[in-house]
Automatic annotation (TrEMBL), chain A:
Keyword Cell division attributed: no
UniProt GO BP: L-amino acid transport
InterPro entries: AAA+_ATPase, ABC_transporter-like_ATP-bd, ABC_transporter-like_CS, BCAA_Transport_ATP-bd_LivF, P-loop_NTPase
Residue ranges occupied by any ABC transporter domain in the UniProt entry: 5-236
Superkingdom field: Bacteria
Similarity-based family: Belongs to the ABC transporter superfamily.
Organism annotation: Meiothermus hypogaeus NBRC 106114
A GO term, aspect molecular function: ATP hydrolysis activity
Keywords in alphabetical order: Amino-acid transport, ATP-binding, Nucleotide-binding, Transport
Pfam families per the UniProt record, alphabetical: ABC_tran (PF00005)
Segments forming a coiled coil: none
Record keyword Nucleotide-binding present: yes
Descriptive protein name: ABC transporter ATP-binding protein
TrEMBL record, chain B:
Name of this protein: Branched-chain amino acid ABC transporter permease
GO molecular function: transmembrane transporter activity
Record InterPro entries: ABC_transp_permease (IPR001851), BCAA_transport_permease (IPR052157)
UniProt topology in membrane: Multi-pass membrane protein
Protein location: Cell membrane
Gene Ontology CC annotations of this record: plasma membrane
Transmembrane region(s): 7-28, 40-73, 85-106, 133-153, 182-201, 207-228, 235-256, 268-287
Cell membrane among keywords: yes
Entry superkingdom: Bacteria
PANTHER family in alphabetical order: ABC TRANSPORTER ATP-BINDING PROTEIN, BRANCHED-CHAIN AMINO ACID TRANSPORT SYSTEM PERMEASE PROTEIN LIVH
Alphabetically ordered keywords of this record: Amino-acid transport, Cell membrane, Membrane, Transmembrane, Transmembrane helix, Transport
Pfam families named in the record: BPD_transp_2
Length: 236, 297
């Protein structure tokens, strides 16, 4: 396995205030990694730095062997990183179908690329609503659409930021099902979520952030064996 | 009424570019009116050189689009990250500079741009109703361009990117939309639309320095009424403003003369007419503060 994403000594600021302090993170190709921590600890900021939306002030981020910390977001996306952002951020003035096809690409020549029919296959609901505008969807449908929209770019790294947040239990199950499916297909994923037990079952390695610093890193076995970590850093 | 539609459609050409630039780039470009002026001057010049109206218009549209893209690439691109005040100041400076440059090149006398000969006369559109052939042509051109723009925005990938960018620029970028080339292209399209408006309004109004500023304000009213970032809103807003403005000027003095002395009516009428569109804007904003068709929700 080769390293897909490597973050070293990442420091990110919002204006004058520092949010991330020397964050290190490595994700191998095909792995599922998580970012854990309470709200406001820097998880989303880490994602924003990877995406180039809030560029790193210091440190380096390399993706598939290329330095990306100084690239603009659209170039980073073109290299093969797609995000399912916090709050979903569906384009309200595009139809469901348009949300899916507007950004479709297969830049890395995936042999089995995601296409509109395949997205509709895993989310049949989206096909039923394909001509509706993005703002006419329920929260669950929007979440499916956000995942579909990201998959349509056939990314090498898929980032999910609180994909199950605010969803009814049944819909949450739906999302976990798709994540398992993606993992089986070899998709590299970085996931942020609150359901630690689910993440232990799904992911390979975990990183806990506390006030912008990495306080713990390890695999699922180690995290599962240390419930005191959960209490201390995740308040579960 | 037809004059209102004709003026409205030309306003739409100006407002469409302005609303996309404002909505997507979050950039206030006061120099948009200057592109309209440049378009009119280039048309007058090229028509003078070639002697063929349509060829002159075509050359002017291409020329203005190139100038627009050059402006975006060299100057306006630096302003996207600045606040609106800086943008207003910088583009206001551009207006002054462009006005002076135009004065240096073409002189301060208004240029004469006449409608093509075949279209200068009136034609009968309904039995007993004559209408200027040129104005009718303007309506036709406006409709065709509006349709083309709608196809571009609603049915192409670039159009989806534009709409996505208008509602959530950051997310569009994160999805891989090549924002910089898209902005340059968009500016070129906006400039071309300005040039078309300038070319066709030139023979009706006057081709002179400062012609861009007066119409720019109307264009801003249009996009505020229509909802910033929405092409559909720009069309509806432009037609509303065009019709209300033209009809107000034509009928208000008549209407007033029914209730007041002719002298008062002829003084008050035009004054009232010119505030009608602002009243319209105030009413629209009262009921729909985001405009009629907001792009952001």
């Amino acid at each position: 396995m080769s390293i897909l994403l490597e973050i070293q000594g990442l420091q990110t600021f919002y204006g004058p205030s520092q949010v991330l302090f020397n964050v290190n993170l490595t994700i191998q190709e095909g792995q599922v990694a998580t970012l854990l921590g309470r709200n406001g600890m820097g998880k989303t900021t880490t994602v924003r730095s990877i995406l180039g939306l809030t560029p790193a002030r210091k440190g380096l981020i390399s993706f598939a062997g290329r330095r990306i910390e100084a690239l603009p977001p659209e170039q980073i996306a073109a290299l093969g990183i797609a995000v399912v952002p916090e709050g979903r951020q569906i384009f309200p003035n595009l139809t469901v179908k348009e949300n899916l096809i507007a950004f479709a690409a297969n830049r890395n020549q995936s042999p089995q690329p995601w296409t509109l029919p395949r997205i509709y296959e895993i989310f049949p609901r989206l096909q039923e609503r394909q001509h509706n505008l993005g703002n006419q969807l329920s929260g669950g449908e929007q979440q499916m659409l956000a995942i579909g929209r990201a998959l349509m770019t056939n990314p090498r790294l898929l980032i999910l930021d609180e994909a199950t947040e605010g969803l009814a239990p049944l819909l949450r199950e739906e999302i976990w099902r798709v994540l398992r499916l993606l993992k089986q297909s070899g998709q590299t994923i970085l996931v942020i979520d609150k359901y630690v037990e689910r993440l232990i079952a799904l992911a390979d390695q975990h990183t806990i952030l506390e006030r912008g610093r990495v306080v713990w890193q390890g695999n699922s076995e180690a995290l599962g064996a240390q419930p005191e970590l959960w209490k201390r850093y995740l308040s579960v | 009424m037809l004059n209102g539609v004709q003026f409205g459609l030309m306003l739409f050409l100006l407002a469409a570019g302005l609303t996309l630039v404002f909505g997507i780039m979050d950039m206030i470009n006061l120099a948009h009116g200057s592109l309209y002026m440049i378009g009119a001057y280039l048309t007058a010049t090229f028509v003078g050189i070639t002697g063929v109206f349509w060829l002159g218009v075509l050359l002017a549209v291409v020329g203005t689009a190139l100038i627009g893209m050059l402006l975006e690439f060299s100057i306006l691109r630096q302003l996207y990250r600045r606040d609106h005040l800086s943008q207003v100041l910088a583009t206001f400076a551009l207006i002054l500079i462009i006005n002076e440059v135009v004065r240096i090149i073409w002189g301060s006398q208004p240029l004469l741009l006449s409608a093509p000969e075949g279209l200068s006369g009136p034609i009968e559109i309904l039995p007993g109703l004559n209408y200027s052939a040129f104005r009718l042509t303007i309506i036709g051109v406006g409709l065709v361009v509006a349709m083309g723009l709608f196809l571009l925005v609603n049915n192409t990938r670039v159009g989806m990117w534009l709409r996505a960018g208008a509602s959530n620029r950051e997310m569009a970028q994160a999805m891989g939309v090549p924002i910089k080339p898209l902005f340059t292209l968009l500016f070129g399209v906006g400039a071309a639309l300005c040039a078309i408006a300038g070319a066709f309004l030139g023979p009706i109004l006057a081709v002179q320095v400062g012609m861009g500023e007066s119409i720019l304000i109307l264009a801003f009213v249009v996009i505020v009424i229509g909802g910033i970032g929405s092409v559909k809103g720009a069309l509806v807003g432009a037609l509303l403003v065009g019709i209300v403005d033209t009809a107000g000027r034509a009928f208000l003095p008549l209407l007033l003369s029914q209730v007041a002395s002719p002298e008062v009516a002829s003084n008050l009428g035009p004054a009232l007419a010119s505030i009608l569109i602002y009243l319209l804007m105030a009413v629209v904003l009262f009921f729909k503060p985001q405009g009629l068709f907001p792009a952001r929700t």
